[in-house]
Amino acid sequence: MKRFETETCIKFVPLKTRVYNTYIEIGSTKKGCYAMIGYHPQKNGQGLPVNFQLPECTAHQGTIEHELLHVIGILHEQARSDRDEHVTIVWENIEKGKIHHSYKESKN
Ligand SMILES: [Zn+2]
């Protein structure tokens, strides 16, 4: 979070000082490293979930940054609507069961 705040205009603030109703809720009780991409209305005033299974998901700073980027709305590069201007997808090189990671989103 400090790196993003230092290098971008993004600011993370503690929940107790929030001014918006939407917030991220970071946990480690579930399996896997994941975050929803961007804003999704949450039930019962819950935060947007970000999970870091311990210790696997916190072993590398890049994994943490990856999930934080998702929760603020950043897609995988290969899924961006403009990806064909920047990368070539070699479909036959993608493992079975993971091809959905390379489907293009309709908007960025
Ligand atoms: Zn991801």
Can you walk through the features of this model?
The structure is a single chain. The protein has 108 residues and is α+β, with helices and mostly antiparallel strands. The chain has a domain at 1-74: Collagenase (Catalytic Domain) (3-Layer(aba) Sandwich). It contains 2 helices and 3 strands; from the N terminus they run αβββα. The protein has a 3-stranded mixed beta sheet, covered by helices on one side. It is globular and about 50 Å long. It binds zinc ion.
Largest sheet: 3 strands, mixed
The percentage helix is: 10-25%
Strand order of the largest sheet: 1-3-2
Q: What small molecules are bound in this structure? A: zinc ion
Distance between the termini: 22 Å
- Cα-based radius of gyration, to the nearest Å: 16 Å
Task: Give the CATH superfamily of the domain at 1-74.
Answer: Collagenase (Catalytic Domain)
Class from secondary-structure proportions: alpha+beta
Q: What proportion strand?
A: 5-15%
Mean pLDDT: 91
* Count of beta strands: 3
Low-confidence stretches: none
Protein name: Metalloendopeptidase
Cofactor: Zn(2+)
Enzyme class: hydrolase
Pfam family, one: Astacin
List key phrases describing it:
about 15% helix, alpha+beta, binds zinc ion, 2 helices, about 110 residues, Collagenase (Catalytic Domain)
Provide a short characterization of the protein structure.
The chain has 108 residues and is an alpha+beta fold. Helix content is 16%, strand content 11%. The chain has a domain at 1-74: 3-Layer(aba) Sandwich (Collagenase (Catalytic Domain)).
